[in-house]
């Protein structure tokens, strides 16, 4: 309910300052004593003259109070105006205007006695509909709907055809659950001004609240009868039918709406929903294509429909139709980020990761404020092994979400792979601080920190990070492998390294990386024959043979006295890109440089 007075009413606080003061002054002057007139037949006595002088003085005082109080109201200094109006009401206790002015200040300042002042003003002058409206609106604001209804009923006796008062009376009836009275109020209005969209829709709400669907439908039909060429009225009737599972009645109404206006987007969307509910997928998609491919149709309903369409897809459902519809939407609305995000989701579900990553990147460029888009983009970079992109995208994401630990983790991972170890340490430590309440994430962070600390030669911190993970997850493959390998390179805790790497090769007997790690631990323990056995097992997997494995095999062969075979393996390693400091020396001399 609105609480402002009608524009132009004398108690409105809008309009020009000078006009407002003049109107208030004139209205207020009408309640004050008026100075008597002298006549030739009768002259005033000195006592009468003194009384007249006192009245004139009082008049000026009250005029000044009105002007001063209104001045403060206009300036927004309501607390100062309140004090003036309290004095005014005290001097003129039978003045409706004085109590109205007092009420306006009290209510603006949320004073509990504001309503009582408004009631006093209206009681003193019930012929003033503006005082009544002010009271009724503020009663409604305080949810005193039945009291407000009584006041509206009284002022409507004075101005029965006032559209605003009738609408507000119907509203307070509605809020006080006097639904029949609200309908009667609308009926009276309709009788005077005819069928209108606003009144008809309000009556529909009331009938639906009473579970009188047939009457709500009649109201919708009345709107159509009042303007048969307005296609949207047919859509509204069809919405009523559709919402109440009367699909057979909704369909012809929508078809009539489209006959009148083939570009009525909402009619196409409703028809699509009906076809979907009837299992007529082809017809549903045809209607959606008509809407989605038209750039002149508003995007908002398309977004809502597409969101619902995606939500109904089950895990094993074919995604091709959804992908096609999203393509149409993207073509007609190329700057809508949500569409690219949803398209990326569908592409992930159909294992098109490269395209999905590109779609997420487009969504992020259009609107970088969505966390889920950045998270999906970084995940795709990681799964694609594109660490250059992961580094750039994680930095971009952190500009918007600097307090998201998972983004720092992605950034740390990218730096780690790029061998920017100090940057990796810094990012991962920041991630650790931000996700300290997530044990699963903590394990991943500490595992990466173990690698990063090793990269900056902070071996003690590296070991502590790995131990943190193994305490919570003794079977962690990543940590068992890297921890044991780095210990072997440092020639420290070799028994522990042997135990960890042996656990891995027992669990994954064909994994070339784990076999190589265990072999290198054995090599550092001078068990060259054992190392050879495990390296030869690793070499049985040609797809996963690395330059490092070949170099290690050459080192073992050299220790076992097989110089020529060792040189052969080192050469193969160099051809595969091995760039260890001593590879050329080994080939030249046939000797290992430990």
From TrEMBL:
PANTHER family in the cross-refs: CELL DIVISION CYCLE 16,23,27, CELL DIVISION CYCLE PROTEIN 27 HOMOLOG
Region annotation (Disordered) ranges: 38-57
Organism: Ravibacter arvi
Protein name, UniProt field: Tetratricopeptide repeat protein
Keyword vocabulary terms for this entry: TPR repeat
Pfam families: TPR_16, TPR_19, TPR_8
TPR repeats by residue range: 231-264, 443-476, 547-580
Keyword Ion transport: no
Keyword ATP-binding recorded: no
Alphabetical list of InterPro entries matching this protein: TPR-like_helical_dom_sf, TPR_rpt
């Amino acid at each position: 309910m609105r609480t402002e007075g009608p524009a132009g009413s004398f108690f409105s606080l809008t309009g020009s300052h000078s006009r407002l003061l003049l109107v208030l002054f004139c209205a207020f002057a009408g309640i004050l004593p008026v100075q008597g007139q002298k006549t030739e037949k009768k002259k005033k006595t000195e006592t009468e003259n003194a009384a007249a002088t006192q009245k004139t003085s009082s008049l000026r005082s009250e005029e000044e109070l009105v002007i001063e109080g209104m001045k403060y109201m206009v300036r927004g200094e309501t607390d100062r105006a309140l004090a003036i109006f309290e004095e005014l009401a005290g001097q003129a206790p039978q003045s409706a205007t004085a109590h109205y002015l007092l009420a306006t200040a009290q209510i603006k300042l949320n004073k509990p006695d504001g309503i009582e002042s408004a009631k006093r003003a209206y009681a003193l002058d019930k012929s003033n509909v503006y005082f009544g409206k002010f009271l009724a609106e503020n009663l409604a604001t305080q949810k005193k709907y039945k009291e407000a209804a009584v006041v509206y009923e009284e002022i409507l006796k004075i101005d029965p055809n006032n559209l605003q008062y009738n609408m507000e009376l119907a509203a307070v009836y509605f809020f006080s659950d006097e639904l029949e009275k609200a309908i009667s109020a609308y009926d009276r209005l309709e009788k005077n001004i005819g069928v209108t969209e606003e009144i008809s829709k309000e009556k529909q709400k009331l009938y639906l609240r009473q579970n009188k669907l047939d009457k709500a439908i009649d109201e919708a039909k009345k709107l159509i009868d009042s303007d048969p060429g307005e296609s949207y009225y047919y859509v509204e009737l069809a919405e009523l039918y559709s919402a109440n599972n009367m699909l057979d009645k909704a369909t012809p109404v929508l078809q009539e709406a489209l006959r009148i206006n083939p570009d009525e987007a909402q009619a196409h969307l409703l028809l699509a929903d009906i076809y979907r509910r009837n299992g007529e997928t082809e017809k549903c998609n045809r209607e959606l294509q008509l809407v989605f491919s038209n750039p002149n149709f508003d995007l908002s309903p398309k977004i809502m429909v597409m969101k619902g369409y995606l939500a109904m897809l089950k895990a094993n459902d074919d995604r091709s139709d959804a992908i096609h519809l999203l393509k149409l939407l993207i073509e007609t609305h190329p700057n809508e980020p949500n569409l690219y995000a949803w398209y990326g989701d569908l592409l992930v579900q159909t294992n098109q990761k490269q395209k999905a990553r590109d779609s997420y990147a487009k969504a992020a460029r259009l609107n970088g404020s969505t966390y889920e888009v950045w998270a999906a983009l970084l995940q795709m970079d990681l799964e694609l092994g594109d660490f250059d992109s992961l580094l750039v995208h994680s930095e971009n994401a952190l500009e918007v979400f600097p307090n998201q630990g998972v983004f720092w983790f992605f950034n740390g991972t990218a730096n780690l792979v790029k061998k920017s170890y100090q940057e990796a340490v810094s990012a991962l430590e920041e991630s650790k601080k931000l996700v300290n309440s997530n044990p699963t994430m903590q394990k991943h962070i500490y595992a990466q920190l173990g690698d990063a600390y090793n990269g900056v030669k902070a071996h003690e911190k590296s070991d502590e990070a790995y131990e943190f993970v193994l305490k919570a997850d003794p079977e962690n493959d990543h940590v068992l492998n890297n921890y044991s390998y780095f210990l072997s390179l440092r020639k420290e805790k070799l028994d522990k390294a042997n135990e960890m790497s042996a656990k891995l090769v027992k669990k994954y007997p064909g994994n070339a990386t784990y076999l190589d790690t265990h072999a290198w631990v054995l090599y550092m323990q001078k068990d060259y024959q054992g190392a050879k056995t495990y390296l030869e097992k690793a070499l049985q997997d040609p797809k996963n043979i690395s330059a490092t494995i070949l170099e290690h095999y050459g080192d073992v062969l050299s220790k076992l006295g097989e110089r020529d075979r060792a040189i052969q393996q080192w050469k193969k390693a160099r051809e595969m890109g091995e760039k260890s400091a001593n590879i050329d020396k080994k080939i030249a001399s046939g000797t290992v440089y430990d």
